[in-house]
Amino acid sequence: MLNILLLLVPLLVFADASMITLANNRYEGLVIAINPEIAEDPKIIDGIKSIMTDASSVLFKATDNRAYFGEITILVPEKWTTGTYKAARNESYGKAGILVASANPKHGDEPYTMQYGECGEPGEYIHITPDFILNDDVIENYGPKGKTMIHEWAHFRWGVFDESATEGYDPFYYASESQNPEATRCPVSLKGTNVVIVNDNETRDCQYNGDTNWLPEDGCVFIVDSEQPEILNASLMSHQYLDQVLAFCHSDENDPVNLHNHEAPNEHNRLCNQRSVWDVMLSSVDFKNKANLPQVGFVNPQPTFKVIQPKTPRYVLVLDTSGSMNGINYDSMMTASSSFISYYVPDKSAVGIVEFNYDAQELCPLIMINSEADRNNLLNRLPSPPGGSTAIGRGILKGIETMTDFGDSSGGHLIVLTDGQENVAPYINEVREDPTFKSANVIVDSVFFGTSASVDLQKLSDETGGRTTSPNDLKSLIEAFQTLSENNDGDIQDKQFQIFSGSHFMNAHDFTSGMVVLDSTVGKNTLFGISWSQYPYAPDVVITSPTGEKYCSTPRPHCDSTGVSENINIKTINFQIPGVAKAGNWIYEIRTDTHSMTVNVLVTSQAADKDVPPIVVESSISSSDVSSGSPLVVNAKVSMGYEPILKALVTAKITSTDTGAVHMLDLYDGGSAPDVRKNDGIYSRYVTEFSNTGRYSVQVSVQGFGNNISAAGPALSPGSPAAFNFGHVDSKGNIVLNPAAHEHVTSSKQSGTTTTDIDPFTRIDTAGAFFFSETASADSSDLFPPSRVIDLTVKQVDALDVSQGVLLTFTSPGDDYDAGTANSYEIRYTYGSPSSLSKSFTAQNPVKSGNLISGDLTHPSVANSIENFVVNLTDIPTDKDLVTVAFALRATDDDNKVADVSNIAMMNLFLKPPAVSCSNEEGSPISSIPFEKKGDCKNFYQCSNGDLYTLPCKENTVFNPSIGVCDRPENVPSCSGQTLATIAPPTGSSEPPPPSCSSTDGMDLLLPIPGKCNKYYQCNAGQLIERDCPPGLVFNPDGLYCDWTYNVPGC
Asked: Which residues are catalytic?
């Protein structure tokens, strides 16, 4: 049963940050693309120009005169008609760095950056909405728009993360030096007040109690002071909306006011190992090795703008007809090219054909596809059987000529299919420098079909923004052409989704069948494509719908043959299902006659309803050229509209083009490296297994199993958003709230993960291809170290008894990144500066086997398991009431390769429970609502004008901390057995009589009970009541509170 929110959702794609360059302090190549669903409005263009002009000035200041924006390209939709726009070259929606699209319900008009990679890795794209551009009300929420864009640019370009408390991170922590609660922020010198926002106009002071580890209660927020230290100017990654914040936190001890806060429990510290944003930025490709040093003298950072519009999609098939293509390679090329022309390339596209062998020739000029006749015309122009040499360079130049004859070649695609190395000049490297090629601005897509492939052609594809695929059989070749037919213009309604792909080897007079799951989000233009190899004898195929309708390749009673096309010459049968195909299980049945053959089945479909977002899978690989020791990551984003799909079975199929060897790799969304966020719909894994040096293709398949799959509502977002401005404290100490603050807090409280059942589904997506080059020493087969742990957490096993140990939890790395099993763990800790664990890991305190209550340092679990270690700390300093301890770890494999140090996990150990204060951070007295008196069910605390009162509940009631009132005991499980007793010594008792219990000021009196360390007396309205200390604590007669045993001599 499908139940979803109706939205207009753009197709979100993987941008290419490498197309943006920084030279001579100017960024070039930035494209801002407007989604086709956005209605035409020239004000959007003007707004973009204004925002990015301001952003460029902010960027120049924030980078200390190192960078600003040069020429910025704005790509408007093809359907916009009122303006005069230049033709796009190789710019596209799919490669844009900033997308203007409809609002993500999770973020609204809040800008955010899609970040899938680890620290220092560029993001995918920045998402902004038309309302953010046009509506100035957003300034009160996020600050000046130009500054907000630089907050996002830092995410996108340099791979840094938020320094404020984003979702899933603690908004407060105890500072190790001051031992006071601090708001998560950078720098710590940024002043403010902690309050609870009650309504649009009212706040109250935050409560501090044991349930929150004596930190401010849930719902407490940090509101900045309007007056800050004069030299404070950081951080744009924490509070970009403040007027005087124009820089990033750094690690320069000479400027302590803007120093990086390495203790704050934010996402940046977790993923970047306590490094400052400034340090991460300077280590990026933009600035490392002293590149783009600060400009001296006057510099005008104002960018220029170019507004362009995409042209008609144009494709030239540049096909290899050299002698090595003879036989099955030629047959496969003909079948795949025919499928591309007949079914996959969309209407209103232009297609031409060029062949190359010892030379190159045009077989068909570009033809605009408007009818079936146009497609047939192209099919009749496909090349004859091959022979001759391999002149790839000549083929590319002839393709450009064909494209130019049709008009401007800019942005046109050359789909170059070849099975071997070139051996006729001009070679690809020469073509790259040819003025004709440079001025053409074409996109070169490479299809390597064979064991030998040109590395230079792959580089040419990378440089022009093209895609590289490495199919090794007919099925994967057809899939490659289907993928390359997508123009990535952002219009999700026109996208052909690959639903199913299967291959069957069949003997003569054989039978096989299979099932295809079609979900209700797709169904329009559904195509069952059947292809086979070797012999020109068609199999007999029957397709059965979920409701019993049959479609047959051979006419027979009660079977529909309309919409079925068969071509013996190119060995294909295609079933075009009429209307919108029904959701459910479709069955195909295949029978062979007198010949054996391999039969391939490929099913594609489009979105069923323009108002219902389809399930989408978008996959990518982190590099196209990999050497041993360098990590390769496969990512797959699985979503329905803007909502991530959880608990899907996501598998990457990695195939060696040379040997055909296949490695299946499950991708995970568990929040361990390389997956940076748990449950955000981004599934990731490292690729660590290679059968040989050579080229590999990567294909991702996804399965959903109905109720086992959840489309999360406001789940943990994969985006990195701008910080929200709750308001400020004016110079008189008055809190001035942002009118939207209460609504923002309320929506945040409701942002827990929700689930919606969706249909069973399947999707297949081609991630790309890469070349693996072996550079490891010959005597080592262990190419990779274990992965870095990024999800280490620590907490006290028993908050009231430190002797029970502390619990470390993390996801186990493997022998090779996240595969296999590591050999051992090294865990270290410190009571000093947490950053010392990353700076000098081996100098910190080691956790030895004797310190472990549970866990084994020498026997790690297999990769991607949850590890739990309980550590007994025997060296806790006793000179403080509060001690901060920080842990980190790293794994070693059996070849002594060592992982990078993990994220640093910190916790507070209370050696004495903190006294309850009735003062705020400035020391001013406060009043409060009733709150829990830890360990005491019958009484509660309440502050009144700075004084702390202990007040009793009525008879037969206990205090319920969840609602802040006295309640029936059965509603408070932890207090269901409590009774109130008046203490009177038994007759003839030898114990001393209890002390007198009188009170003239209405305040309670606490007294020790001789000989009973874990009990105490409480005087309440003249009655003497015996109380128990919480488990593990004893009564301290000096301090008159329950305390740790080692603080009370004799107990």
From this structure: 152
